[in-house]
Amino acid sequence: MTFLIVNQDLCTQCGICVKVCSSDIIDLTDGVPQVQEINVSRCLYCGHCEAFCSSQALLLNFHPEEKVLLPANAGNISQKDMEFNLKKRRSVRHFIRKPVPREKILEVLDIARYAASGCNLQPVQWLVIHDPEKVKKVAALTIEWMRSLVNTPHPLSSFVPMLISAWEQGEDPICLGAPHLLFAHIPEDNQLASVDAIIALTHFDIAAPAFGIGTCWAGFVAAAATFYAPLQEELGLPAGRKSAYAMMFGHPKYKIYGIPRKKPLEVMWQ
């Protein structure tokens, strides 16, 4: 099998693919990019070689049927648009009951699939709790975990009674009535994958508003999923995998019309 498919009529022999290769395995032989058989196993399948090819002459022979041509100027965002898009990002804590269709959730997750990961290992997989009743069950189990923290040295010990009291009065201080929950889960034996999970969740968080979806990082749920066995059993993740973090989401009840202030920027230069 040809590892790199090169259209020699389009190739300009610029050598950029050689320079951007993360594994330094591409050579120019008579001006044509190629990977020696002995180096194929070192490929990370990051796709830099074809992504940076200005003439689109090169194709990494990895699911080549899935290659999507990038239209001219596709994805170009002005500095101001990018600034406002990120600055107006809000944690959504009020949702309407209308569920987000599974197809739309998959569209956003497909974007998150392209998030950066160490050595392009892509260790992140997803659990979507789509049923609002199951979301409530997760919230209840999180409250159960919190009850075990009362009068202990745990950092949340003095804080959880307020949450437990709100729960007992019929409120939901855990999932805030969100219709859906998203868990990024990772291999238990990969100590670096938790960073990859946060990067992927951030992609979901930033992309979601374009699809009419509001998000909020579910810190209490994430903590309970890490330490409370009954919740872990409820999630039913595959053997050898663990929750890295969680996010609640749904259709937001209110629109955003402004940008609040933040702490002043603090930067050190060396």
Overview of this protein structure:
The chain has 270 residues and is α+β, with helices and mostly antiparallel strands. It folds into 2 domains: 4-66, Alpha-Beta Plaits (2-Layer Sandwich); 91-250, 3-Layer(aba) Sandwich (NADH Oxidase), CATH 3.40.109.10. The chain contains 9 helices and 8 strands. It has helices spanning 16-20, 48-51, 79-87, 102-112, 132-147, 160-168, 193-207, 219-227, 229-235, and strands at residues 4-6, 26-29, 32-35, 58-60, 125-129, 180-187, 214-217, 241-250. The strands form 3 sheets. Strands 5-6-8-7 form a 4-stranded antiparallel β-sheet, with helices on both faces. Helix 5 crosses helix 8 (219-227). The radius of gyration is 23 Å and the shape is elongated.
Write a concise synopsis of the structure shown.
The protein is α+β, with helices and mostly antiparallel strands. It contains 9 helices and 8 strands.
Structural domain count: 2
CATH architecture of the largest domain: 3-Layer(aba) Sandwich
Largest sheet, if any?
4 strands, antiparallel
Indicate the radius of gyration in whole angstroms: 23 Å
Please tell me what the overall shape is.
elongated
Instruction: Report the β-strand fraction as a percent range.
Output: 15-25%
Structural class call reads alpha+beta
CATH-wise, what's the superfamily of the largest domain? NADH Oxidase
Mean pLDDT: 94
Number of H/I helices: 9
**What is the ordering of alpha helices and beta strands?**
EHEEHEHHEHHEHEHHE
Cα end-to-end separation: 49 Å
CATH structural fold name of the largest domain: NADH Oxidase
Low-confidence stretches: none
Total E-strand runs: 8
The level 1 CATH classification of the largest domain is Alpha Beta
Going across the major beta sheet, what is the strand order? 5-6-8-7
Q: Determine the fraction of residues in helical runs and give it as a percent range.
A: 25-40%
